[in-house]
Amino acid sequence: MKKLHFPVFIPLLFSVLNAFSQTAQVGGPCEGCEAIYENPVPLEKLESVVKLPDASWEGKKPLGINGTVYKADGKTPAPGVILYVYHTDETGHYPKKGNEKGWAKRHGYLRGWMRTDEKGTYKFVTLRPAPYPGATDPAHIHIFLKEPGLNEYYIDEFLFSDDPLLTAEKRQKLENRGGSGIVKLVDVGNMYKGERNIYLGKNIPNYPVTP
């Protein structure tokens, strides 16, 4: 009589199904990407506009950055994409209040979360960060993304075109993940404004290829 090998087949079946149920892994290692889930507001209820702590119109001019997130075709707006940003303060440090938990112990409290609206747009207001003290790295704003159906990953940091530390050599070494992160700031009177559009999948390792 022929033996049936169900004990072997069943675990294999569940393994295959489990693999299909997991989100595709893209973008490579991403230290700190878990911080996307540390926002007290549920991801689906996030607004497309956020003001980071310490930003105001009293005293120093705030910095506002906005843009549109596009799908991999480069022209279709991408709604429902989560953006997480964090950066140093005006002294080049990640400021802490002393009660931080999770990744806030590393990222500090100058951070914020957004979710693109139906037009794929986002905007955040903050104060312009400074470079790390004594370092040669340009001032920057870190950004991680979480789009539907995929894991979290990072894209190129926001950089500023007028930063003297952003040399031609450093520009050539940029990966342009998600498109260029270099932002040109314009003084509009009560604040500085900059724009950056983001292109999902651009220069992102293992990103799914669409027909």
Distance between the termini: 49 Å
pLDDT average, as an integer?
Answer: 90
Low-confidence runs of at least 5 consecutive residues: 1-6, 8-22
Tally of DSSP β-strands: 12
Largest sheet: 6 strands, mixed
Structural class: alpha/beta
For the record, the CATH class is: Mainly Beta
Backbone CA Rg: 20 Å
Proportion of residues in β-strands: 15-25%
Number of discrete helical segments: 3
How many discrete structural domains? 1
Task: Give the fraction of residues assigned to helices.
Answer: 10-25%
Categorize the overall geometry.
globular
| Second-tier CATH architecture | Sandwich
What does this structure look like?
The structure is a single chain. The chain has 211 residues and is of the alpha/beta class. It has a single domain (30-199), classed as Aromatic compound dioxygenase (Protocatechuate 3,4-Dioxygenase, subunit A), CATH 2.60.130.10. The chain has helices at residues 6-21, 104-107, 168-172; strands spanning 49-51, 63-70, 82-87, 111-115, 121-126, 141-146, 153-154, 159-160, 182-183, 186-187, 192-195, 198-199. The strands form three sheets. Strands 1, 2, 5, 10, 11 and 12 form a six-stranded mixed sheet that branches. It has a four-stranded antiparallel sheet with strand order 4-3-6-7, with no helix packed on it. Strands 8-9 form a two-stranded parallel ribbon. Helix 3 (168-172) links the parallel strand 8 and strand 9. The chain is globular.
